[in-house]
Specification:
Rossmann fold; eight-stranded mixed β-sheet; 9% strand; globular
Length: 633
């Protein structure tokens, strides 16, 4: 388990000032941990006239450098103490901590007190003290929680109670090793940045050694971590190390020579506001690739001047799927554009329109993610060998790299704008896709919440129901084969990663308990029941069977927390994707226009209801049965 609080107190009070720990920081640490071991001399030898009279005095005139030293160090300690509280809850109650847990709130409260005492308005990157405190509180809680969710099975702790004693021991050790990695890495970074000649090469080597030790510790404690939470020890540790970069960017106003993969210093592109721009992703840095081996690229339109940058729509392009040598070879020959991202342009209708008269989201920051690996945005960065053809399956890697790049640019721009700066917990986001992009939405939504830590994100899979036909050649059967073949398992939720989790309703059942931490956390499922393209992609030969399966799936899942449906009712023609069709976007179902339903999802999410009608499908299509549950006439 994480070291008990008493040990942390001693560590915090004995860290050598020679490692760059200023007197202001020492005083703040004394405040953070309480009075044990702190003497008047620890804050009175800086020539300021005694305790409370210098930089660390309440509201005193701390310099920017002293404020940053304090900020970085108490953020490190807060994460350690918050994580220890989370581990203690699982150890003693076999469940996640209550929202009011004293250990978690205590860690946040002590950090707040220390920062408020050591920093003044503007001392940290121009932020007010209140804005700085809010940013740090969110970083401490969200980063510590994210690591715990990866370990114990989401905010709901779904994995822990089902693990046997050996499995729980493995999870506890994995969490301890990752927390130690975060703490030791932050200590090393903070110490290096406090020096005038921080050697980034030496620091990188130290971080690599710390990560290797964490992997070794987990390997020794676990038979196979991936059978519990989908991640092998190396991937698990790599993701914790990535969190260190984000914490460093949060805790330091200037990260100097330290190279980070998160934060303003990692901003990789510039874009004009209110205009679309293509961004080509550096594959060597991000590990991205399209199906023909070319670079991945995406489109972005930053919110126009005067509009909020932190209102974001992310759209995933559709384009079917190829699974076998024959269909992949045929698609590459007939439609090579399906395997590249360089020539794709953003959609411009319905929810994706740039015209405020058509879409209430027209002036949000918009990101369009092309689809180029024929893997429903699920590929984990492997090349699948299919006889005479090799297909790179990098869809999820491409998606996540692009969104992280956007995050870092927003972070940089919002900090430069002043005010409260960048706050991931204040971003309101619509994350969705069409057809294959709808599948990609449900397979990656948990990452937006749990890893990217944009909690106010709603998902909208459009025409990507991922329904199973019950045969071997179906979504579930293919999931058993393709999840390992595409390297998908590490990118699925740690509480749902077997073949069945490729099926939409199965995944909804698994993810529902982690939703609604804030009201915006919802999945908005869109489709027209008569959809020959979607039906074919899911290997349903009979149209009536498809519609009946869709209706049953709705009834089985409609009452899940955080899940809402909007089904259009066109029965006389096949309609594939609905939210980018102006006539359906502005049309009504059960008395509510789709456009208005989406607005309600982000402005009044607690009031959202399902909009599903019986329609005339029973009369129009032979074999279709009425909904097995109550819907609108």
């Amino acid at each position: 388990m994480i070291s008990p609080k008493g040990k942390l107190v001693n560590e915090g009070l004995t860290r050598s000032p020679a490692r760059g720990f200023s007197l202001a920081a020492a005083f703040a640490s004394c405040m953070f941990f309480g009075s044990i071991g702190c003497s008047e001399s620890s804050s009175s030898d800086d020539g300021s006239g005694g305790a409370g009279g210098g930089a660390a005095g309440a509201g005193g005139g701390a310099s920017a450098g002293e404020c940053t030293t304090v900020t970085a160090e108490v953020l490190r300690i807060c994460v350690e103490e918050y994580g220890a509280a989370v581990a203690s809850c699982y150890d003693t109650t076999d469940a996640p901590c209550a929202a009011s847990d004293a250990g978690k709130s205590g860690a946040l409260g002590k950090m707040t007190e220390a920062v408020a005492s050591a920093c003044t308005d503007g001392a940290f990157a121009g932020l007010s003290t209140n804005a700085l405190v809010g940013r740090l509180e969110n970083a401490c809680a969200s980063e510590a929680s994210s690591l715990a969710w990866r370990t114990y099975g989401g905010p709901q702790g779904a994995v822990w109670p089902s693990a046997d004693a050996s499995g729980q021991s493995c999870l506890a050790e994995a969490h301890r090793a990752a927390m130690d990695l975060v703490d030791s890495s932050l200590s090393a970074i903070n110490a290096c940045l406090a020096e005038t000649d921080c050697d980034s090469t030496t620091l990188a080597a130290e971080r690599t050694a710390l990560a290797a030790a964490a992997v070794s510790s987990i390997d020794s404690a676990c038979g196979d971590l991936s059978t519990l939470v989908s991640l092998d020890p190396q991937t698990y540790v790599d993701r914790a190390a990535g969190q260190v970069d984000c914490l460093t960017a949060t805790g330091h106003a200037d990260t100097g020579p330290v190279e980070l993969d998160c934060g303003p210093s990692n901003a990789q592109f510039e874009a004009p506001r209110g205009e679309w721009k293509q961004v080509v992703v550096d594959g060597a840095k991000w590990g991205t690739m399209c199906g023909d081996g070319s670079d991945y690229a995406f489109q972005i339109r930053l919110a126009p001047e005067g509009e909020r940058l932190d209102r974001v729509v992310i759209g995933l392009q559709g384009g079917g799927v190829c699974l076998f040598e024959s269909d992949c070879t045929a698609r590459l020959a007939s439609s090579p554009g399906l395997f590249t991202a360089m020539d794709d342009e953003a959609l411009g209708f319905g929810i994706a329109s740039d015209d405020p008269a058509e879409s209430p989201f027209a002036n949000w920051t918009k990101v369009y993610l092309p689809y180029c690996n024929q893997d429903v945005f699920a590929g984990g960065g492997v090349t699948e060998s299919l006889g005479a053809i090799d297909v790179p399956r990098y869809g999820s890697v491409n998606l996540r790299a692009a969104v992280r790049m956007v995050r870092d640019v927003l972070w940089k721009m919002m900090d430069e704008e002043g005010g409260a700066g960048f706050r991931p917990d204040e971003i309101v986001s619509l994350f969705g896709g069409w057809s294959a992009g709808g599948y990609g939405t449900i397979y990656n939504y948990h990452w937006m919440l749990d890893d990217l830590q944009w909690p106010r994100t709603a998902a909208f899979p459009d025409a990507g129901m991922a329904l199973d036909n019950g045969s071997t050649l179906g979504v579930a059967g293919l999931g058993v084969v393709k999840i390992p073949a595409w390297g998908t398992m590490p990118n699925l939720p740690p509480y749902c990663f077997d073949g069945g989790c490729a099926v939409g309703p199965v995944l909804y059942e698994a993810i529902s308990p982690r939703l609604l931490q804030v009201p915006e956390q919802q999945i908005l499922v869109l489709s027209n029941p008569k959809d020959d393209t979607q039906r074919g992609d899911a290997f349903f030969d009979d149209e009536a069977v498809w519609i009946n399966t869709l209706r049953q799936a709705y009834c089985n899942t409609k009452d899940l927390a955080g899940l809402h449906y909007y089904f259009t009712s066109v029965s006389d023609q096949s309609i594939h994707v609905v939210s980018v069709r102006p006539e359906l976007w502005a049309g009504e179902v059960d008395g509510e226009v789709m456009r208005d339903w989406f607005v309600r999802a982000v402005t009044e999410p607690d009031t959202l209801v399902n909009r599903v009608e019986e329609g005339d499908f029973v009369q129009a299509i032979s074999g279709v049965q009425p909904f097995p549950c109550q819907v609108a006439p």
